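Hi support team,

I submitted a single chain yesterday and got back a structure, but I'm not sure I'm reading the token output correctly. Could someone confirm the output below corresponds to the sequence I sent? I've pasted both exactly as they appear in my results page.

Thanks,
R.
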Amino acid sequence: MLYRLLCGLGLACTLALADPAPKIFAKCIACHGTNGQAIAPGAKGGTSIAGLSQAKIIADLKGYRAGLTDNGGAKSIMYIQAQNLSDAEIQALAKYISNLPKAPHKVIDTPQP
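Hi R., thanks for writing in. Yes, this is the structure output for that exact sequence:
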């Protein structure tokens, strides 16, 4: 009985320490893609979030959470997504996204006359 109780507590502790970022990022996939390399609808600048600095991601998410950041047509969507994120979740998500590989630059072949 004591063994089961201790194992249960250990499991609970392990689960509590698990990185929340992948689960949180699952909500981002629809617009940003599975690897963060998609350009979200309405985003200014034509850049993806993959590989952005943690500081930039934290500032943007806190700005969206406060309703102050505007990066194009996605302001209301990002506000809804960020409004309930804690500072710890924002930190974890920023670390996760900043470690995603940047999107490769696409070279557009222009036909020669």
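A quick pointer for reading it: Residues 98 and 104 are 15 Å apart (CA to CA). Let us know if anything else looks off.

Best,
Support desk
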